[in-house]
């Protein structure tokens, strides 16, 4: 790579991107690899199509993947949920993680939400599919034959991308959990349809007695009524899920969540102007939800992001088994 790109990627991956050393931002409840509970999760909208690489070269693509893999390893991640992922990008991550031995390897499933996204040609000029992926720690950790892709209901003014829920049963520590990943349409009419449908679909796994991990970009803030069907606490809530960053009192809202409360439908912003010039405000719209019966001691942090990498912050979470 030219010197300018070497410098850029040194900044992105060696010290700035995703904090592979696990340093995180200066937060009062900062969750580190040394202090977090043993079950680890990452949800990240990687903006694979719309966020341009400095150059569409093998070296640049490899540097991007290397930075992501560093964060996965630094967090000792069990489940990684990626959104806005180009197929060629997924294939590179898959190959980087699958080629390792034992628990250092990862199994994965992919789901397409768009047959072709023109901007995905920076990852593969031939196969430009666009969608979601789940990565699970351990070779063969995804239970064979359990992958499912469910198309979510669309609002009348549908955009070009199909909105889906990608799920698979995966080994999580010594148990099998249902892992699901989604990317909800940002229009108000669509979130009102799609979030309740996702809640209904993952509730089926919870009712069957399985631990459920649901992650994704929901394009909606925690306190909105659309999210009632997921949260198991807060005004209007009807769900059975907790969210990894719900106990960070630094982000409790003054009206809805006094500091005396233990939990709040809130959290650190995962979309902000520091990630993207077209993002005008800061908001939490990315989540890792865990079924309440199976998990305890939830923790979460939104990590810093360097400009140009993605228009979202990576969200990492942790929890312990309830029983």
How is this structure best described in words?
By secondary structure, the chain is of the alpha+beta class. Helix content is 20%, strand content 26%. The chain has helices spanning 3-16, 58-74, 87-98, 188-207, and strands spanning 39-45, 79-86, 106-114, 130-137, 148-151, 164-172, 175-183, 212-217, 241-243, 286-291, 295-302, 315-321. The strands form 2 sheets. It has a 6-stranded mixed beta sheet with strand order 3-4-2-1-12-11, with helices on one face. It has a 6-stranded mixed beta sheet with strand order 5-6-7-8-10-9, covered by helices on one side. α1 packs parallel to α2 (58-74) and α2 packs across α3. The protein is globular.
Q: What helical percentage do the residues reach? A: 10-25%
End-to-end gap: 51 Å
Number of extended strands: 12
Number of separate helices: 4
Order of H and E elements? HEHEHEEEEEHEEEEE
Gyration radius from CA atoms, angstroms? 18 Å
Class computed from helices, strands and strand pairing? alpha+beta
Briefly characterize the structure.
By secondary structure, the protein is an alpha+beta fold. It contains four helices and twelve strands.
What's the structural blueprint in terms of helices and strands?
Elements: H1 3-16, E1 39-45, H2 58-74, E2 79-86, H3 87-98, E3 106-114, E4 130-137, E5 148-151, E6 164-172, E7 175-183, H4 188-207, E8 212-217, E9 241-243, E10 286-291, E11 295-302, E12 315-321
Parallel strand pairs: 1-2, 7-8
Antiparallel strand pairs: 1-12, 2-4, 3-4, 5-6, 6-7, 8-10, 9-10, 11-12
Helix pairs in contact: 1-2, 2-3
